[in-house]
Structure formats: structure tokens, C-alpha cells
Amino acid sequence: MFKTTATLVLSSFLLPLVVRGADKPNVIVFFADDLGYADVGYQGSADMKTPNIDSIARNGVRFSAGYVTAPVCGPSRAGLCSGLYQNRFGFEDNPGPYKVSKEVRIGTPASVKTLPERMKTLGYKTGMVGKEHTGNLPEFHPNAKGYDEFFGFVNGASNYRPDGRFGKDMNAPNNPILRNREKVQESEYLTDAFGREAVAFIDRHKSEPFFLYVAFNGIHGPQQAKDEDLERFKDIKDKKRRLAVAMTYSVDLNIGRVLTALRNHDLEKNTLVVFLSDNGGKPLDNGSQNTPLRGMKTQLRDGGIRIPFCLQWPAQVTAGRKIDTPVISLDLLPTILAAAGAPVKDKLDGVDLLAVLTGKAHQLKERSLFWRFNDSWAIRDSTWKLVCFGEKGKPELYKIATDIGESKNLASEEPATVERMEKAYKEWASQMMPKQWGWNKTFPVYDPEMAGE
Q1: Residue 446's pLDDT band (boundaries 50, 70, 90)?
Q2: Any idea which of 45-54, 116-125, 151-160 has the lowest mean pLDDT?
Q3: Who contacts 137 (Cβ-Cβ below 8 Å, separation ≥6)?
Q4: Is residue 231 part of a domain?
Q5: Catalytic one among 81, 133, 141, 310?
Q6: Is there a catalytic annotation at residue 133?
Q7: Which of these three, 358, 389, 417, is where a domain ends?
Q8: Are 104 and 253 within one domain?
């Protein structure tokens, strides 16, 4: 494996590590859906109103080169919650809202320890609010994957309002709103309902360490906004963009409700709060924007996998910093566990960012990031990105550190770099499960022991 240099832009003011034990931090992860790289104020959006998301970036660290593990919802979520490339366990694409035979499984297997499962062993109360989408069989339900409490749905899309696309019912066909495993009727705008439930979880568990995963389905389709929010942005003439801005405004407002709950309970200082999107935006579909990136959701251009990504932890992370080194959602699991005082000992694909976040270290170890999605693949380091589309496609090389828009293919000018990176990708791919959708009796699921853990 080749080496790269990873340099971090850090403040000169460094903070000591927190005392563990009774001072374990609470953790909240906000996960937006189909929100583009340019769709938050702190990334320079002129029309998105996201003061609460912006406050997380302002009060902590923003990652200018933050990535997720896939350009669509399901596998991206599986990567975040496992700390492993989901390709290791056959989670190549979204699970669908249909029956799956007993021989085929599309989801995160029991052999993979999820973030909430790990947090439970550390004495954390675990809760999830929002969209899961990592397997629609009972064995993949959030309550079976480490969450003490769940409110949301387990597939790809849901009504936001009862007069939406799926009829006068908040429950989409084959995808009901659930409280734990029980179907419920919800009448409030769904993003507001998720904010309400997240605040209620904090109110219930304010006296004990908690891990809360708030996976908003905004701004994923169907595009449905509240009437008052559409009126607020009536000057935006493009209908899809107006809906995207109004829906994002609601997501931000409910993030603000959660942050206010932390302050009301004097929990803000020692709560690690993360915000990111599950994949890039899809401008032609939902009016999102990925500027200045090329590409969109479903693609391995940066527009499909590079997302707004920021975090705050006032007790430990100096405010107002920007980290330009590439990081990926895989890094959250080991970082959160280290913050909770229990660094991961088993083998993961993500790395612990805690030392660089707190100022104990000034740079990450050298590494590359990898992607495989259907017939496309990509690899990037701190300088270069190599991407290939289709089984018969030719790899394209971009100096991504300076050509963020992937505008100039340098493959013919840098053949040695292409060869080196393609070799590294093939080495990585050889460690993944062969390309397939789920796994079955004839091909065993990912086994940590076989992986040398």
C-alpha cells in the first residue's frame, strides 16, 4: 500500500483529554438524507437557512473533505454504524421494500458489532429516531441492532404530511411509522415529529450517558414541506429548490430544538454532536446542490459521496477549526468509542480521530479511502482520486486536492500514479465480499475471525 501525507489545519490552543468514568460524554449523531455538499450555510449556500447546523461547524470542527462510504442511503448507513466498509458483508446497494427469501439477507449481519451495540456495553442508553434503511427483516430492526428505543421507519421513504403522496396516512405502504416494533399513527409533520421524539429521549435520559442517532429523512423524496415554510421561501422561483430549502429549514429547526434541550439540561459542554449527510444531493430530482463538486447521488464522483460534515464537543474540541485531510463516516465509530473511554481493539476500516480533534496529535496516519458501488469504484488519498465507471471503463485520475470539481483527467499524464492506485484498489477489493446483493447459504457472511480480528 502506498503512503500519503495527511496534514491538518489545527488551532494552536490545545485541550487536555476529558476525565473518564462519571464524565462520559453524551453522543448525538445527526444524519440528513440526500443533502448536497453546498446545501448548508457554512458551506456558502446563499439560500439555505441553517443557523443551527452552522453553529455546530462554528462551535467545533468542519471537515472540508468529509466522505461517506456509498452514494446511496442504505449502504452508507451500514458503513457509518459498523465502522466497516459495508462491501465486507455484502451490503452493496439499498434493500428494497419487498419480501426477501430466507436464503438471502440484505442488511448488517449479527457478526458485525454496531455502534449502538458497542455503546450499550459501555453503559449508555441508546436511542434512534428517524430512517433506518439497513434491512427490512426483523433481524435488522433497530431494536435488534442495539437501540433501546426507536421511533421512525425502516425503509427508504415516508410521507412527511398526511396529505402526501401515499394518501391520507403518514404510513407508506410496507413502511409504517413505528415506536419500537409497534405501528403508530402520526399526524405531525414528520421532521417535527422526529425533533419532538429526539428531545423527549434527552428529557428521559438526561441523568445517564446516552447515545442518540437522529436520522432525518429530510430532504429525501417525496418532496413535502410545511405550508408556512413554503411561504417563508416564496421568493425562490424554482419549485424543487424552494421545496428543498423549506425542507432543510425544517431539519435545521429541529436540530436546534435538540441543541436547546442539551443547553436546558446543562449537557451541551460534554456532548459530542456530529452532523453529516448520508450521500450527496440529487439536483435534478430534489433541487439540492453539490457545487463545486461534479456528479450526484448514485455516482462515485465527489458529488455523490462528499458531504457536509462537522462536529462539536465544547469540553474537548476547540471551536472554529477546519480539517482538510480526507475523513470518512467510518471514522465515527472508533472516534465515538474512544471519546467514551473505550478505544476499539478489534480491526475496523475507520480510524480514531480523537487525538487530532483534541489536539493531542497533529496529523492522521497515512491512508487511502475506497469505494465500490455496482460496477464503479474509486480510491482517493490526500492528493489524488482514481475513479472508474463500468466494468469496461477506463480509470480517470484527478488531482482532487486542487481540482475539487474533477474537471481535468490526468490519467494519460500520470500513468505511474494510475497503476499504483489501481493496484491498491484491487488489493482492497480482494478483501471484500465478491460483488453481490446480500448473502446466501452458498456464500457465508463476513466473519471477523476469518478477517484476523
Answers
A1: very low
A2: 151-160
A3: 100, 105, 107
A4: yes
A5: 133
A6: yes
A7: 358
A8: yes
